[in-house]
Design the sequence.
């Protein structure tokens, strides 16, 4: 068995977007993304490096330059639908969540193992960094669009916020592409 085992799980891309610089968290919808080793072009989260944030405060002082493994925010349509329902909405626009990629069809998506790969038919590949924990930024965007519905976001999105990822092989992805999930062939860590 290869160290990165292909699965029969495919995520069909249903939505693509980029967060323009100086636009807050809200994504602008796209029909395709050109991915480079630095991430998506014209995206506030792109770059080979980034300033460390509170998520890694036990490793480095905030603002320390580190490798950017948070170039992309990838969510599943199924989990977005569950978040919407918990927030009392019929539908939740992925743009309000600052999404880069939304996929449909991969079960328990937020919990795919770190270092999993999502590969497009043309070979473009992204690597899952880790679960993207919910924060208050999307709640504010939802609240601005749908008053009183943003408040439950953080609890509604716990365990359903998707993953952060970085580009391993450059290329273009587009709406309708099916990304195949490859997972590390290793047992779970046992301290």
Sequence:
């Amino acid at each position: 068995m290869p160290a990165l085992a292909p699965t029969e799980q495919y995520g069909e891309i249903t939505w693509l977007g980029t967060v323009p610089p100086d636009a807050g968290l809200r994504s602008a919808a796209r029909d395709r993304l050109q991915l480079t080793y630095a991430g998506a072009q014209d995206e506030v989260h792109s770059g080979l490096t980034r300033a460390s944030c509170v998520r890694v405060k036990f490793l480095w002082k905030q603002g320390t330059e580190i490798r950017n493994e948070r170039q992309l925010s990838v969510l599943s349509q199924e989990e977005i639908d569950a978040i919407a329902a918990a927030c009392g909405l019929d539908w939740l626009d992925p743009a309000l969540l600052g999404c880069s990629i939304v996929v449909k069809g991969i079960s328990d998506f937020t919990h795919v193992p770190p270092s999993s790969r999502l590969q497009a038919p043309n070979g473009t590949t992204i690597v899952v960094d880790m679960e993207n924990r919910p924060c208050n930024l999307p709640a504010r965007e939802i609240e601005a669009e749908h008053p009183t519905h943003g408040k439950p976001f953080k609890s509604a999105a716990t365990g359903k916020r998707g993953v952060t990822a970085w580009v391993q092989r450059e290329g273009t992805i587009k709406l309708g592409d099916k990304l195949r999930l490859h997972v590390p062939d290793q047992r779970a860590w046992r301290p």
